[in-house]
Amino acid sequence: DLLDLEANGYHGYLSLETATSRYYEKPWVAEETTLKAFEKLGKED
Length: 45
Description:
Elements: H1 2-7, H2 21-25, H3 27-44
């Protein structure tokens, strides 16, 4: 829950890929998806 993360001082990025069952089935695929998404964000800045 995002409110729990905020209440505990988490200030990083949260990827939805790590919050779905797909992450637990194939974590390396979810990780690649997350990294690609952040690469796109970095290029927009």
